[in-house]
Amino acid sequence: MIRHGHIIVVGLPHNDRMTQTPPPPLPQSLAGVRVLDLSRVLAGPWCTQTLADLGADVLKIERPLRDGAGGDDTRGWGPPFLKGRGGDDTAEAAYFLGTNRNKRSITVDIAHPDGQALIRRLVAQCDVFIENFKVGDMARYGLDAASLRAAHPGLVYCSITGFGQTGPYRERAGYDYAIQGIGGLMSVTGERDDLPGGGPQKVGVAVADLFTGMYATVAILAALRHREATGEGQHVDMALLDTQVAMLANLGANYLTTGVPPGRVGNAHQNIVPYQVFETSDGHLILAVGNDGQFAKFCGIAGCPELAADPRFIRNADRVRHRDTLVPLLAGLIKARAKQDWLTALEAAKVPCGAINNLEEVFADPHVVAREMTVPMAHPRSDTLRLVASPMKLSGTPVQYRRPPPLLGEHTDEVLRERGWTPQELAALHQRGVI
After folding, report:
1. What are phi and psi of 47, to 5 degrees?
2. What pLDDT shows up at residue 19?
3. How many CA atoms lie within 13 A of 88 on its CB side?
4. Fold for domain 34-246+373-431?
5. CA distance 114 to 106
6. Per-residue pLDDT tens for 220-229?
7. Residue 111: HSE in the Cβ half-sphere, 13 Å Cα cutoff
8. How many helices (H) and strands (E) does the chain have?
9. Which of 26, 43, 115, 326 has the fewest CB atoms within 10 Å, i.e. is most exposed?
10. Residue 123: which residues within 8 A CB-CB, separation 6 or more?
11. How far apart are CA 350 and CA 345, in angstroms?
């Protein structure tokens, strides 16, 4: 039994209990890597949560509480908020909880000279420094890449901004919604302009932020590998707009190949047919035919084998060219039968398909449950915290859920004592409002 961080051995004689030792901790891929995290909101915290899940010691630097405001902005981005033990809302927003586990929170006023000195002292004990301030802001505090790396050449310094450290837009603030528009994603997302509901549409989650956080993670790991080989750190310059352009993937390649900007096609696919949502007699399903063999199987199940032999539809390229003829034919056939009837038959024939679940259905799905994609965590203010788990499944160094998302400043004194600050120094910093 494990209770409050201690191991209690149950059912053994007293003398045997005294000889029991806790099992050795599981290895972690990034154990020993120290990260100083001055990022907030989503892209940076998504990166640092990933590093923390893999075992890095992440110190989240937040603004001290002043006049009711402080910390990462997302702490207040609700409702919903975590329910406390009495059933009332806590001050912990679900948004913040979803991106900040396995970290320790330290409050530091970096606008104060003593706060800047504190950060520089911490940097000397860290491997990675991450910030997502506007270009030039960190230089005002003497915490820019050039200054810190001059003193610590092995430091991996990662800047995450909307538009990067160079270029005509570098001083602009960057927000995911605007980046989805500027970077072209909204031009290819949403229903066709000539259909009801047509027009630009953003993605349901902040994908530019999330992708940038993941690309930043990869870049940091690459920089750490380089440092391991050479002893040299480097400055990682990550931009939401760069990431958004890169993640256009096949659609970006389509444009560069043809010079023709792709448009919105709703739930259809630009390069594959049939690959879209269809209405059934009692709902909707996704049909995702990926090759010609699967199309022939689908036609057999649908009772129209002649379509698979039609010269207009034999190959995917033919089906794309004759999309406007084929899709209405298939829509009529699919609407005549029930959703589960289709799903059962298509899955048995290994024709890619799927239901369209809401999140209640997602987290109740037996496969999602079997893959352990939620994790309960003990929280100082609640017994009901449940988070989306990491998707990374490592056989030798599994992700560990060591710490719940921290309270604001929860670990300030703990970490600074651990890193060498004396009680007298801490008292003076508190008195001056630095921490």
Report:
1. -60, -50
2. 53
3. 3
4. Rossmann fold (3.40.50)
5. 15
6. 999 999 999 9
7. 5
8. 19, 15
9. 26
10. 36, 129, 148, 151, 152, 155
11. 9
Question: Is 275-356 in the same CATH topology as 34-246+373-431?
Answer: no
Beta bridge partners of 73: none
Q: Which two tokens stand for residue 434?
A: 């630095």
- Whole-angstrom distance, CA of residue 335 vs CA of residue 279: 6
Fold of the domain spanning 275-356:
formyl-coa transferase, domain 3 (3.30.1540)
pTM beyond cutoff 0.85: yes
Confidence of residue 423 (pLDDT cuts 50, 70, 90): very high
In terms of Cβ atoms closer than 10 Å to its own Cβ (0-12, 13-18, 19+), residue 398 is middle
Nearest to 240, CA basis, from 165, 171, 163: 163
Give yes or no for a contact between 20 and 12, defined as CB atoms under 8 angstroms apart: yes
CA–CA dist 46, 206 (Å, integer): 11
Contact assessment for residue 110 and residue 141, using Cβ atoms and an 8 Å cutoff = yes
The enclosing H or E element of 388 equals strand 386-388
376 bridge partner residues: 386
The strand pairing partners of 279, in sequence order, are 284
User: Which of 37, 20, 54 is closest to 415 using CA atoms?
Assistant: 37
- Active-site residues, by number, are 209
Residue labelled with tokens 């001059």: 150
| Cα distances (Å, whole numbers) of residue 10 to 6, 22, 132, 304 | 13, 13, 48, 65
Residue 420 C-beta-side C-alpha neighbours within 13 Å = 6
Beta-sheet strand order (sheet of 234-239): 103-107, 57-62, 34-38, 128-131, 156-161, 234-239
Q: How would DSSP label each residue in 252-287?
A: HHHHHHHS------TTS-SS-SSEEEEEETTEEEEE
Give the CA count within 13 Å in the CB-facing half-sphere of 134.
8
Domain boundaries in the chain? 34-246+373-431, 275-356
What is the DSSP-derived secondary structure letter of residue 376?
Answer: E
How does residue 288 score in pLDDT terms, banded at 50, 70 and 90?
very high
| 32-44 pLDDT per residue, tens | 999 999 999 999 9
Tokens representing residue 119 in the block: 């950060």
Angstrom distance (rounded) from CA 272 to CA 290: 7
Q: In terms of DSSP bridges, do strands 283-288 and 275-280 run parallel, antiparallel, or are they unpaired? A: antiparallel
